[in-house]
Amino acid sequence: MTALELLEVNSISLKFGGNLVLYEVSFNLNEGEILGLIGPNGAGKTSILNCITSFYRPFEGEILMNGMEITRKKAHQIPYYGISRTFQNIELFSGLTVLENLMAGRHILMKSGFIASSVFFGRARSEEIRHREVVEQIMDLLEMQAIRDKLVGTLPYGQRKRVDFGRALAAEPKLLLLDEPLAGMNIEEKEDMVRFIMDTHELKQTPIILVEHDMGVVMDIVDRVVVLDFGRKIAEGAPAQIKQNKQVIKAYLGKSGN
């Protein structure tokens, strides 16, 4: 493992019953890099993210974060390694406000005990102020101040996707996993989300693994691409190389191309 590598996925294989979902998938992510993870529907992209976050347990292979194996860790332990994610199907607290959802994203960083927090005095008060400052910065970055006090369940879909992204940022991740952040959005919402992703990366240099079906967006913003098909890695390289890869063209179009 070189000094620049943050995440290593080594020969991961996953199956459900007799169904092989991933077969010996390997790749790495470097510090400061945006990696695109692409492939046709059912290729195993989200399954890879679920293995990294321990929602799924591969039966072979290992995953290393900063040189530490996390393959067998429990899902609730993964955020403590600096890994945060968004979801295809938005997983938010619909009965809480935008502000409260972002504050919930900081729970792993909160140090005050239950009694100190409940009386909101001394160290607990100082800590609350610090967390609020970070959340306010995120809401400014993602242009959410106008909806800060609205219940998430009342927001339109595009805004809920933005809150999901904001909550992932609230944990101050060392690695950010974005699972189809543009899915279901209109053109204007997609443009805004891409801008937010790029602004966040420029500001924080947080490494990102991006799963996304919009190939135009992926090829424009990522540094490197990994392509999956039927649970196997079929290509890896710079966007310009992947665009010309005949195996990738065949996987997406069903023909070899010229």
Structural summary, described in words:
The chain has 258 residues and is an alpha/beta fold. The protein has a domain of 125 residues: P-loop containing nucleotide triphosphate hydrolases (Rossmann fold, 3-Layer(aba) Sandwich), CATH 3.40.50.300. The chain is 36% helix and 24% strand. The strands form 2 sheets. It has a 6-stranded mixed β-sheet, sandwiched between helices. A 4-stranded antiparallel β-sheet has the order 2-1-4-5, covered by helices on one side. β7, α6 and β8 form a beta-alpha-beta unit. α2 packs parallel to α5.
List keywords for this structure.
258 residues; alpha/beta; Rossmann fold; six-stranded mixed beta sheet; four-stranded antiparallel beta sheet; 9 helices; 10 strands
Radius of gyration: 19 Å
Q: What's the CATH architecture of the domain at 1-82 and 216-258?
A: 3-Layer(aba) Sandwich
Number of strands: 10
What is the CATH C level class of the domain at 1-82 and 216-258, in words? Answer: Alpha Beta
Helix-strand topology string? EEEHEEEHHHHEHEHEEHH
Low-confidence stretches: 113-119
Supply the CATH superfamily name of the domain at 1-82 and 216-258.
P-loop containing nucleotide triphosphate hydrolases
Q: Helical segment tally?
A: 9
Beginning-to-end CA distance, first to last residue:
38 Å
State which percent range the strand residues make up.
Answer: 15-25%
Main beta sheet: 6 strands, mixed
Give the strand order, joined by hyphens, for the main sheet: 6-7-8-3-9-10
- Helix fraction bin: 25-40%
CATH fold topology of the domain at 1-82 and 216-258 = Rossmann fold
Gross geometry: globular
Structural class: alpha/beta
Mean pLDDT: 88
